[in-house]
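Q: For a teaching session next week I want to show students how multiple molecules come together into a single three-dimensional assembly. I've collected the sequence lines for a complex. Could you give me the predicted structure tokens for the whole thing so I can convert them for display?
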Amino acid sequence: MRTGFRTLHAVAVAAALVLPGDPAAAAPEAAPESAPGSDAPATAVIAFVAYRGAPTHDLHPTWVRRTASSVLADALAESGRRVVTGPDLESVLQARRIRSNRDVDAALVDEVAGRHAADRIVVATLTLHRDRLHLLARGLRPGTGTVAWADAVEEILPAGEPEDPETDRARFREILVRAAAALRIDWSVPTDPRGTLVVLPVRAEGTDHGLTDLVSSSLFRALLAHGDWNLPDPALTESAVRSEGLHPLQLQAASRRLLAERFEARWLVVPRLLPFPIPGAGLAPIAAEDDEPSRPPFELGERTPFHLSLTLIECTSGKVIEGAAEYLVPDSGIGMFGVTRRPPSVQRFERGVGRAVSSLFGDGGGNP
Amino acid sequence: MIALAGCFLAGCGAPAVSYIHPDVDFGFMERAAVVPFLNLSQDALAGNRVQSIFLMELLEEDVLTLVDPRETDAAMRNLGLSPGTELSPQQAVRLGSELGVQALFFGVVEEYDAGQSNRTRGPEITGLFGMIETQTGAVVWRSQVHETGGSIWKRLFGGSPDDVYTVSRDAVRRALRTLL
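A: Of course. Below is the structure for the complete assembly, covering every listed component.
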């Protein structure tokens, strides 16, 4: 088991990984099952695991994924609601070849909502970095197709050599429980939404999907906190654009019109993230298209400065009506008495994105 | 004299060398696009970085309506134009018509050193920025700037040079000041 996992790390660096129904799973914990036929409304939890760099722990990916589903189901449990996850969704994910949060589309949302009577869907990605984990989750209301909440949590993984598997699993589960409990979940419906904004996928040159997902999550969180916008879920907007043969990362008059008509959106938010050289370090990596799988992975970059820019575009005319940029300087990581810490990256992006959103809409959160 | 003293203290490059076409009425230009910058440096992302900063500084000036770079990229692809290459006057006219803009901003990053080669001197950037009016495809504004992050003052008193972002932004601002 251990040998296979190490090999897998080498292959799966920077690639989202889902292994539905892997028989090699080391006694995975049973995920809670739904109660078929129950009339209670359901929350469906679709969880993915992604690996970026070789983590210090040594746990089977299937076990990690199922444990993540189970822990999230516990964290999202509410009285009077069913939680649908694990085996109930596995067949749907397998049939539709859904392997990462980027594959989640309108058809999957419809099927999960229809088959399980789920009026809430949570799409979560647990990203395992070398020394930390990121739990990114967003809550989607299938009825309106909008994002209700989005959050990202970071936990530092214990350093050192792995101990016996049981201890490692218990410790890892404990960290996951802590991360899931820290998610700021809010299903409340905006009482007086300011309008509909479509957020385009983050265009990031020279970075990996882990960072763009983190920026995207921070952006949804900041926009929801900054004015009760109706934010169509990215799975639905990207599906709509793709269904017309357009690329979601590109922006054309046709895609603007489509998004305006289908989602009644007046504005688009277009995010861009660019890494800057680390002072005193070598040159930045080679630029590559964001969706090019063969490009070299960029490190998580807790020491890398980033330039984040947001433009607000009017759907009908395509004109940029506002722009905001933030230079995200990393924490030095040097604490008292010169002790080097591992500065949290989630906080840096959350704060930077929050400042950029405030600057885009003004501090009052008003309409553009 | 004061400006010169300021330059000495704060650290800056040589004055921008610029050209503005004498017979162009900038008043008719309402809508513009920023095309991907040509990158002649060894840093593969230098052009994208400076272009992104340029766009934000232009938006900050609030003098023209701008088209988002993603839409500009898509229009270039539709016309079979490679991003990051020099546009001929004919190509500029076609792109202007496709985007419905009266002006195209372009840039060439000639030198982009983030400070790796000389830490005392700090980051150094040399860039050429320009504007093409899309009726004829003629270049109507051009400005070349060189900016560094270090200064004699900082060297004398042990201050650290500006970071590459600040230097890039200052270079863009210095160039735009010759136009706006």
